[in-house]
Amino acid sequence: MSILLRGGLVIYGEGFEPVRADVLIEGDRIVRVARGISAEADEVIDASGRVIIPGLINAHTHSPMTLLRGLADDLPLMEWLQNYIWPAERKLGRREVYWGALLGLIEMAKSGTTTFVDMYFHMDAVAEAVMKVGLRAFLGYGMVDLGNEEKRKAEIRETERFMKFIEELGDRRINFILAPHAPYTCSPECLRWVAERAREGILVTIHLAETREEVKEIKERYGMTPVQLLDSLGLLTPGTIAAHGVWLDERDAKILATREVTIVHCPASNMKLASGVMPLKMLLKAGVNVALGTDGAASNNNLDMLEEMKLVALLHKVHTLDPTVADAKMVLRMATVHGARALGLKAGIIKEGYLADLAVIDFRRPHLRPLNDPVSHLVYSARGGDVEDLIVAGKIVMLDGEVLGVDEEKVLDKVENIREVVI
Ligand SMILES: [Zn+2]
């Protein structure tokens, strides 16, 4: 299978240089980026007037939580979780999770996301939804043992079962990731088990230092910060992808940099739940790889990575009173290259030899003209709805705004029905 994208403005290479060029894709790779490519291709997409960008990488979400969008807003994290989100989640079975994930996947595809990291339950239903839509996914069963040995054994069993399930699927776009929920919901024994499995080269995702209360609780319980705790358990490695990292001190930042951990910044969620402002400047200065995520739709309340990029840029400028922090290229790097680095993917850049994961954005719109600076427009002016086509692993997932693998109307009806009957 080959695809030729003709006549677009390509955000090319590591430097994100806008270049007028055609892009030729063969199999799952970008093979040529040049003007006037005359090669034959199975599919030709007219990209004139469009900007072709590396697919966005949502490094932290909970896709089925689209079902809980707008269910309980304007509450602190613990009250929100304990009184609203967890009780609602107890009503969600495999079927509900499947439709919720499909809704999330459609939303992500339509806003330019090609790869996402997901943590939830009934994850085989999420995998089924991913196969339908065709995004690249890293799926983890969210382990929570609350220090209970029986529960821990059950969580380990479910994790192992799901890992085997993903292996047997044999789809290169669908990957397994270990997903202990957080240092405050998982016992050291549980985290140690995860660390042992991670030594086999399996990626890990976890929530880390999200709120001030979490740091206080972990310090009281273990006499260490959450970062120090995970480090003492051997859980901080280059394969660790930790969401939030809001409450970190300089010593934590140094540990994270030394261990080559990725922190996933989720600005919308942190602002909405009033968790705090992640110390982006400090982490970047320490040399930490910082990626970007939306978190679940219940705390965002959408999965639009273009919006998330704008929020990063604005939040850190106003917070530090420094407009030079989080410039457009840096933010785009967080949403692409840094996510790819975390996941060990040769992606996040449009260049020969890289994975053909990219999005085509319609720039013939009033809010995206004149074309003074396409990267600036992407971060500060574009919206999810501007994305027209999406290619993942050399396969067309969305064409002219339509996600091909799924009946969108049916998904919208199903989730409405779930809202009425189940939630
Ligand atoms: Zn989360």
From TrEMBL:
Q: Which InterPro entries does this entry report, sorted A to Z?
A: Amidohydro-rel (IPR006680), Deaminase_MtaD/DadD (IPR023512), Metal-dep_hydrolase_composite (IPR011059), Metal_Hydrolase (IPR032466), MTA/SAH_deaminase (IPR050287)
EC number(s) on file: 3.5.4.28, 3.5.4.31
Q: Keywords for this entry? A: Hydrolase, Metal-binding, Zinc
Q: Can you tell me which residues bind Zn(2+)?
A: 60, 62, 207, 295
- Where does the record place the Amidohydrolase-related domain? 51-397
Q: What does this protein do?
A: Catalyzes the deamination of 5-methylthioadenosine and S-adenosyl-L-homocysteine into 5-methylthioinosine and S-inosyl-L-homocysteine, respectively. Is also able to deaminate adenosine.
Q: What is this protein called?
A: 5-methylthioadenosine/S-adenosylhomocysteine deaminase
Q: Gene encoding this polypeptide? A: mtaD
